[in-house]
Amino acid sequence: MNLIIDIPKKEKFGEDASPMFMESENKQISIIGVFDGMGGSGSTLYVENEESHTGAYLASRTVKNVVEQFFDEQLKDENFVFSQDKILILKEKIVDGLKSKLNKQHYEQSKIRSSLIRTFPTTIAICIVFHHNTKSTIQTIWAGDSRIYCLSPENGLVQLTKDDLKLDNDPFQNIENDSPLSNMINLDEDFILNFKEVEIQGTSLILAATDGCFGYYSTPIHFENVLLKTMLDSTSIDEWQKRIIDELNKVSGDDFSMSLKCINNKETDFKQLRNLFQNRLEVLYRDFMKDINNIDEIMTRLREKEIALKNEIEQYESKRKKLFEQLWDLYKKTNYSHFKTKA
User: Fold this and answer.
1) 168 by DSSP, 3-state: which?
2) Which of 70, 167, 315, 325 ranks highest by number of CB atoms within 10 Å?
């Protein structure tokens, strides 16, 4: 069971490449991935075959093509394993692919000099899943702030990658104080492909997502709630996909793309999947969303008054912020358990 979402902010000009989904012939290996062209730093316009696109648009698509070709070759090996020594090979192929793409372009060197401008900048987040009898081995490769998550009935939404940020922000802090990236794929400076491996027991959902999916919510808790509530309100994978898109369209100010794969020891249909996650949604509501919804309802009523007391609104805004901080401190014990956070 898999699901793909690819929604550009502007039709035909989205800087996210279409998400990646690949499987080995024997279905024992699955690979998902997303690629988010960095529109601000990659705004230089290039012309190829009389078509004009930004460097961000070209970067995400070029890197995706290189990655797919690389893994297509790797998956032909029945004994395929991915280890850190192959990271350098993949990185070299990405750089060569971007250089080749650049050589085909017609463009004018920008007269604007800025430390933010990059040649072909994009993020990348890839997940390789090795399916075993009683567990799954998860390998993540990333650069930038696109993410890999594991959504499980026991632990909820657990982040498996750590954003490459100049500020030492955790995911909640970065919503409040958005940090520039410290690492991304580009041709102007060296970059790192991060690598991490974990093992997952039982049935889970693995998803790769660009920041347009999760970056516009008040807390990471909200993103999990959207995923679970839309699932439980749906009767099929197609309906779930539509409901997620509808919810993300309400809040996202960016392109958003996602690739999702169900991993388990046996085939699970959508009805069984919903049953597995029913209890987790109840726990999420009881421990987190109930308090969030209550204070948001108070804030909404205050703002709807013809004459609202400014001090009262400010008082509840302060309470809301403190509540979110307290709930995040609890939530990150599972959601962000693979990474250290500031005290």
Assistant:
1) coil
2) 70
DSSP tag of 73: H
CB 44 within 8 A of CB 187: no
- For the chain, the straight-line distance linking the first and the last C-alpha, in angstroms and rounded, comes to 39
Q: Give CA–CA dist 203/284, Å, rounded.
A: 18
Rg for the chain, CA atoms, rounded: 21
CA angle 323, 218, 36 (to 5 degrees): 150
Over residues 97-140, the pLDDT tens digits come to: 999 999 988 775 554 555 678 899 999 999 999 988 878 999 99
State the angle between helix axes of 237-251 and 220-232 in degrees (0 to 180), rounded to the nearest 10. Answer: 140
Q: What is the DSSP letter of 17?
A: P
From the centroid of its chain, how far is CA 294?
Answer: 28
Please state the pTM of the whole predicted model.
Answer: 0.93
Tokens read off for 178: 């958005």
Give the type of residue at 266: K
Cα–Cα distance measured from residue 151 to residue 134, given in angstroms and rounded to the nearest whole number: 17
E-strand ranges in 49-134 read 51-54, 124-131
Question: Domain coordinates of the chain in residue numbers?
Answer: 2-276
pLDDT in tens, 212-254: 999 999 999 999 999 999 999 999 999 999 999 999 999 999 9
User: Residue 225, Cα to own-chain centre: how many angstroms?
Assistant: 15
Helix (H, G, I), strand (E, B) or coil at 29: strand
CB-based contact 172:219 (threshold 8 Å)? yes
Question: Looking at the domain that runs over 2-276, which CATH code has it been given?
Answer: 3.60.40.10
Query: 154 Cβ partners below 8 Å, 6+ apart?
Result: 202, 280
Q: Let me know: does 134 contact 201? Beta carbons within 8 Å.
A: yes
| Secondary structure E strands in the chain | 2-7, 20-23, 29-34, 45-48, 51-54, 124-131, 135-143, 147-152, 156-159, 194-201, 204-209, 256-263
